[in-house]
Design goal:
This protein is α/β, with parallel strands linked by helices. Helices cover about 25% and strands about 25% of the residues. Helix 3 packs parallel to helix 4. Bound molecules: zinc ion (ZN).
């Protein structure tokens, strides 16, 4: 029986690159792979086509979904053979309902979800929370803080300063994110002016 996988990591932990390598691996084994990303992630569009794009330069066309999309409908629309796989990038933006649907789909085909565990307030994203609750397999993609410890916090930076209030998703805001360990996160919060 296939499984629902949740592979999580902090910002900069090469999750997207790993998702694309996973896709390549399944394709070389003769599987049909359907790659998804949420519409809230507007990083990359090439010739009008949505792309999943990794910082290390890998790119792949994908299918975009929004909060109201039914993955059961997407499954019925796209999947013609049981030798298929769903891969979801930025899966933290899935709704609880969508994760529940992916759990049902994973009874038939493998479903692999890649994304962040927590938001900039160090709280679980909705999609990540549901994945932690019902995924069959949880694994961590590790990345390193500047100090050498494991990065676990996704800090939001505005003008080089950590901010801890605001909306979970900010459209068009002048901000960046940095993965860091909790120790460095607290130190920077204490010392920044
Ligand atoms: Zn650190």
């Amino acid at each position: 029986m296939s499984k629902l996988y949740f592979k999580y990591g902090a910002m900069g932990s090469s999750k997207t690159a790993q998702a694309l390598m996973c896709r390549f691996n399944y394709i070389t084994k003769g599987f049909e792979v359907f790659l998804f990303k949420p519409k809230t992630d507007t990083r990359c569009v090439v010739d009008g086509k949505p792309m999943v794009s990794s910082r290390i330069g890998l790119k792949q066309e994908c299918i975009e979904f929004d909060k109201n999309e039914s993955f059961i409908d997407l499954y019925k629309h796209y999947v013609k053979t049981i030798n298929s796989v769903f891969i979801v990038d930025e899966c933290q933006f899935l709704s609880t309902k969508q994760v529940n649907e992916l759990k049902i789909i994973s009874q038939k085909i493998p479903v692999l979800c890649y994304g962040l565990l927590t938001n900039f307030k160090t709280e679980l994203f909705e999609g990540s929370k549901r994945l932690v609750e019902i995924a069959d397999s949880l694994s961590e993609i590790k990345s390193v803080c500047k100090c050498g410890r494991k990065a676990t916090v996704n800090a939001r930076l505005v003008d080089g300063k950590i901010v801890t209030t605001g909306a979970e998703v900010q459209i068009g805001a002048d901000e960046s994110y940095e993965g860091m360990c909790y120790n460095c996160y607290l130190n920077r919060l204490r010392t920044q002016k």
